[in-house]
Amino acid sequence: MIMGHYVTALIPYAYDSNRKIAPFWLFLLLPQLADFLMLAFVFMGYESISPENFFKVSFMNMQAEMHFSHDILPLALTAVIVSAIVGLLFKSKRLFFIALGLMLLHEVLDMLVGFKHFLSPNHTQAFGLGLYNTMPILGIAFETIFCILILSWYLRKRERLGYPLKTSAKIILWGTLVGTTIAMTLIAKVPLASLISLQLG
User: How is the chain split into domains, by residue range?
Assistant: First the structure.
């Protein structure tokens, strides 16, 4: 899941738009922290993503070895540590639980829609549906529906609280979160390089 992780930032932000608890960038960072860690581990050689060439990647052929950043126990430990640091820095117990929820929700959504994850690097039993590798269109459809539901709820919540978003902001949110997710169907089964060659041909 990609945009589906970002849209979860709107859940706490709907109740904290005046930034009393934390800045919005923090709510955006926490749901995607596992993926940022994965990129760092890939760069250091501890994890891997294949194919390495972005233009040869499709959801169907993508393989990710991300035991340290995404296996259940390592991610849970990371979530507790990061959430504790965030809670201490902002002096907020409530923020500790928000951060913990956002980071753990990343794992749940990944297993429902994205890739399978192991309990720990030493275990061989994987958990999750693995839709990206088996039925990517279905996985992207679930992610699109999830984005639509959360975004619709967020916009209604803002209106009920008395500070609705401007039309331009709504268009940006719908285009970025929902439009981008739908566009991912283009590389669900066919790599971008093949898609380009088909168009050029």
Answer: 3-200
